[in-house]
Amino acid sequence: MNRRKFFRNSAVSAAGMLSAGIPGLTGCLDSAPPAGPFSSSGNIMKEVMKYRKINTHEHVRPDISPGALIEVSDRLGIEKLVISSIVTEYSGKSATPQEFRDCNDLVLKAMKQYPDRFLGQAFLNPVYGKESLEEIKRCMDQGMTGLKVYNQVKINDPLFYPVIEKLIDLKMIILVHAFCGLGMGGHRPKYGNTEPNTSIPEDFAGVAKRYPEGMFQYAHLHGGGDWEYTCRILQDYPNVYADLSGSNNEADAVDFAVRYLGEDRLFFGTDGSHFQGVGTILSSRLSDAQKEKIFFCNYNDVLKRSGNHVN
Amino acid sequence: MLIDINASTGHWPFQQMQNSSCNEILARMDRYGVDLSVVSNLNGIFYKNVQAANEELHEELMSDRRFKDRFFPFAIINPQYAGWRQDLDICVNKMGVRGIRLYPVYHDYELSDPSCIDLVKIARDMGLIVGFTFRMFDPRGPRHWMDTTIQWNLGDMIPVIQEVPDATYFFLNVVGNIFVLNESERALLKKTTVLIDTSGASLGNMGNAIATYGAGKFAFGTHTPILDYLTGLLRIESLRENEGGEAARDQLRSGNARKILGI
Q: For residue A98, is pLDDT > 60?
C-alpha cells in the first residue's frame, strides 16, 4: 500500500472540498446560474455533447444486449461505460462462485465486443473468500478496472477485509450497492431497508475509517434513498465517492451533494436511467468546470491510479 | 416553441425546494428556452382549505407583469371539501385557470369516488383540462415518514377514463410500466384526449412509447421543482429520425400542448 500517495490524494480531495465552500454556508452554488446558451430547445443536445462522459455505474444482463447500452449512450455522448453484472436478491440465486464467475464472463464478453467503450468491474461474494480473491485475479488479468459488490454482505463486514486489501493493492475502486431507507420504517426517522445486508451510509463511514487508503463508491445517490442524510453522513470521509445514477432525479440533489461532499467526490452514472443521469447534472447550478469533473475527470483520476485512465 | 405542462410553485413540507417561486421558475424557463409553463401551487396538496393555495398562486401571478404571458395557471380542487364548486367557479371566471389538478391520494379519496368523477365531468363541461400526477415523490427516495407511498400507473387511470371518456387529461410524472395496458385499454387511451408529460421515470425509451401510443399523446414536462429541469427535454431532443424525428420533436415540444391549451 502506498501511504504517501494516499495522503497526497487525500490532500487533493480536501482541496476540492474547500473549493466547493463550507457546507451550509454561501458558496458558488448560491449564485444564480449564468445565462445559458439555450436560446432554443434544440441547443440542449449541443450542451449535452460538450462534456466528455464516463458512465461509472451500468450493468449488462443476459436480457440486455451490450449494443442497446451503446445505442443509448451514443445519443447522450457517453464515451465510456463502467459495467458489471450482478446477482440480485430477485434472482433467487445466492451468488455462488460459479454464479459470480458467470456474471463476470458476461462482462468480459461485452468488453471484448466493445473494447473501446466498456470498462469492466468484477462481481464477487466475499462469503467465498478464496474464490473471491481468485476471481479478482482472473478478472483483473483480463483488463477489468474495479470491483462491484451487491448486498450479499455489508461492506464493513470482516469478510470483506481481504477483498478490500486486495483492491487497495491494485489501486482500484469498489462500487458498493447502497440504500438509505430512512423514514421507511415507520413514524420516526429509522431505517426501513428491506434488504438487511444492503450497505447503509454508516457502513461506508465505518469501512472508510478502517481503510483510509481504500476507494469506495456509494452507489446511485439518485436511487439509494435519502440522499440528504447520506451526504451528511459521508461528508467527513474523503475516500468515499458517490455516483449520481438512479431513476429518482430530484432537482436539488446534485447541488446538495457538491455542497457536502465537494466537487471531486461525485461521479456521473446511470444504472439504467440514462436521461436522468445526464439531466440532473446538466440542470444543476454547477459551473462548466464542475460539471466536467463530475461527468469525466473525477473518475478518470481514480482510473489513473491504476494506470487505466482514458486519454 | 417549448411548453412545460408540469410545473409547480410553493413549498414541500418535508424538504426544501429550490426554484419554486414564479420568479425562479421564470429564470429557469429563460435559461432553457421554455416559453410557457402550466403551473399550480404545491401548497394546495397540503392545505385542507385548498382554495387558499389557488389564491396565493393568483396573487403571485398578478405581482409581476412578466408572468401574465408565460404561465398558465391550473387550480387544485378537492371535491371532498366544502365550497369546492364555488372555488372552481372563482378559479375559472376570476382567476382564469385553464385546468385543474386533483390529488386524491393526499386529499384522501379514491379515484373512483363519485365526487371525483363528478368533478371530472364538471371540468369537461367547463372545457377544463384535468391533471393527475402519478406520484409527487419516489417513495424509495428521501421520503418523510408522514408522506405517502402510493403511486399509480396508467392502468389506474382506465376506470376514470371509462367513466368520463370525453374529458381532456394531463397524466403527469408517469411511473410504472406504461406498456401494462391490455389491447382494449390501449385502444381506449388512444381515443382519449390526453397528454402524458415527459418527466416520468416510465419514459426511459421515448421511441417505444411513441411507437405504442403515438406522438400525439406526449408533451414536454419537467415536474419542477421536484425533478430536474432537463431530463424530460433530453427524452425529446434525443429522439432519432426513425422514432419520429423533427416532426415528433415539434409535437412534443409544444405542438400537442398548444392544441390542447388552445394557443
A: yes
